[in-house]
Amino acid sequence: MTERLALILFLALVLGGGLSIGYVTAPGEWYAQLVKPSFNPPGWVFGPVWSVLYILIAIAGWRSWRSGRGEWQMKLWWLQLGLNFLWSPTFFAAQQTGLAVVVILLLLATVLGFIATAWQRDRLSAWLFIPYAAWVGFASVLNASIAILN
User: Fold this and answer.
1) pLDDT tens for each residue of 19-60
2) Cα distance between residue 4 and residue 72, in whole Å
3) Is 139 in contact with 104 (CB distance < 8 Å)?
4) Which residue among 86, 97, 100, 111 is the one 20 to 30 A from 25 at the CA level?
């Protein structure tokens, strides 16, 4: 498999998967009725932010795959992707805000673990995950606030 094809497949998996899950579990009437904290961003922010983050996640995954498919870095990358894809169905579809806090905190820990692991081997991949860690950290506080307020 050529490296370009592999990159395209990573982009398709992450961007396509993330956007598809977001579309299927889009916030509806239930979410609109929730009490939200004052720092809750407007709804239009989430699509562009996640699109950029998914591209960064895919590139970091592709780089990790190239450097060692069986290494911890790649295992953490797959784990974070699974947790990422699990959060929206947990929060929006199942309407389980408390369980979603658990999922997002596990996601944050995995993202930070990926950064720490990648830092030694592929610093660019670690840097690609820094905005992701910041957003997931913010989203964790937002999710917890919504769970507490409701």
Assistant:
1) 999 989 989 999 999 999 999 999 999 999 999 999 999 999
2) 23
3) yes
4) 111
pLDDT band at 1 (very low <50, low <70, confident <90, very high): low
Domain edges within the chain: 3-29+48-149
What is the pTM assigned to this prediction? 0.94
Evaluate whether 58 touches 10 at the Cβ level (below 8 Å). Answer: yes
Task: Report the topology of domain 3-29+48-149.
Answer: Ferritin (1.20.1260)
Q: Look at residues 139, 102, 133 and name the one whose alpha carbon lies nearest to residue 115.
A: 133
**68 in the Ramachandran plot: left (φ > 0), alpha (ψ -120 to 50) or beta?**
left
d(CA 135, CA 115): 14
Q: Mean pLDDT over residues 116-136, rounded?
A: 96
34: burial class by Cβ within 10 Å (0-12, 13-18, 19+)? Answer: middle
